[in-house]
Amino acid sequence: MTRYLSLYGYFLIQRFKILMEYRLNFFIGSASTAILQAASLATIWVVMRQIPSLNGWNFYEVILIYGLLTMGESITHMFADNLWTIGWNYIRSGDFDRFLVRPIDPLFHLLADRFCHDGIGNFVTGALLIGVSMYSLHVALTPLRAIYILVAVISGGIIFIALNLITATSAFWLTESIPVTQVVFNMNEFAKYPLNIYHNAIRILLTWLIPYGFVSFYPASYLLGRDAGPVVWLSPVVATVFILIAYRVWLFGLRHYSGTGS
Amino acid sequence: MSVIEVRELTKVFKIPKKEIGLTGAIKALFMPKYEQKTAVDRVNFQIDEGEVVGYIGVNGAGKSTTIKMLTGILVPTSGHARVLGRDPHKERVANAREIGVVFGQRTQLWWDLAFIESLNLVARIYQVPETRYKKLLDQFAEMLELKELFHVPIRNMSLGQKMRAELAATLIHEPRVVYLDEPTIGLDLIVKERIREFIKEQNQTKSTTVVLTTHDLGDIEELCKRVIIIDAGRLIYDGPIETIKQQFGKYREITFETIHSSERVTLPSGAETTHVEPRRLTVRFDRTLTTASQVAAALMNQIEVKDFSLSEPDLASIIKQIYNGALNREAA
Ligand SMILES: Nc1ncnc2c1ncn2[C@@H]1O[C@H](COP(=O)(O)OP(=O)(O)O)[C@@H](O)[C@H]1O
Ligand SMILES: [Mg+2]
Q: Which ipTM did the prediction report?
């Protein structure tokens, strides 16, 4: 474990050396995610001007949901972006084989291979939005809330990673997994708004099957003191269950790969 | 000691059959049909510590597939493989520590990183002790002339530079077994020579076992005492390179471009025409019985020659002849 941590740190240092070499890219990457964020926020703002309250949630409350989702998403973006490109960059080219001839876990190697700095911008944006929202709503940052947010964000990140890992595994059969990943990933759009505005079916879907609700809506409900039941405590549990399932799925894909090759 | 042991090793690929049209596509989705492709077919061999073995065969013969099974990337369909007593797939990580692999044309280094940073990273992954690493780095830098490449990212390297870098990265953890899958493909002679020297040196000083695939007979002649030849997945020859050289190395071919279409020609004994086209004639001769100049002189006396060229038989033609049983016939 400590070996993997220090190895990850070393990968990270190398990655930043590359990024510094392409300084311009670094800033464009960070700026482009910021612009996308701004556009997204503008949409919410426009929506909320039309309907000042979404099923009882006002603008700043929706911003809290959005901030939590953004932070969770930024974690996949930073640490697991290679799950998007596994098919194109590694399997199709045969480069995936190099992970299999090295004495470390291939999934670790794949993820560590490219830390994606584009996520940093989103991480900061998400944190700011949470701050702005809580400040405007006079929700004090008590130590308990701080810990809750930390756990919720990490759990949220893990949920994102788990779902992307499951869909990325399809690359072992299809070579290109982006379309599959895209379909599931895009479901997080729903989780930018309070889940109670949707039909029951969608709510159940986003709670138990593609549980983006645990990244944003349920933690926000807790922080705002809304009565959402015990689910507000379940984010870490759901994250653990999903990442374990995802890892099983990944191992299954790996076994398939070792039977078929690229 | 036997380092690699392969018994009845077989790999069958199931390739989904593409069907035409929409109904075909739908059918393929629900009832996929597969074509079976036997890439490696009941192969047996055993390689001892410190051997350098040429593993050769034409394109698609099954060389890379064999190497992928020996490195743990692929699972055999049947039969078994042991490397240093281990199942390379089941004990993939333990196996990985002891082996090094070069797949020519691909790189295992980071495209954008300066070469030295890539090397540092590889050394960390393999947990090479610091002092050992420094020492090896100096040695490798000298033997492969790497000093001036240390700060060049892989993406800016020429093919030859890349391969030198690749070899250093593959051997920096001092693996006991090294698989080199076409390491010299596309390289110029000087680089080839340097790479061969390096492999030879590693083998001699560390008893590294080397399995080498190549299309270059020069690589084989300089490095391997033993070759294993496979064709269409089947092992067709396993033995000393000397035997092959004696049987086929004594032949040379001369191709003549002639002014007029050539009639029958008489040749010195030991020479025969193998290929006749209008205005082009290929003659194969046995070096132990005659010489190139005798053959050329004899021919030029009979017909007007515009140009001619001398060549050694290439690997593909040797393999074909072995496959046709030429070796057995001549050995008998
Ligand atoms: N992943 C794969 N899926 C299906 N067929 C494959 C795969 N890899 C190799 N083959 C087939 O197996 C045969 C042997 O390939 P390979 O081992 O790469 O040959 P070589 O390295 O000797 O050129 C070829 O016919 C090739 O098309
Ligand atoms: Mg090959």
A: 0.88
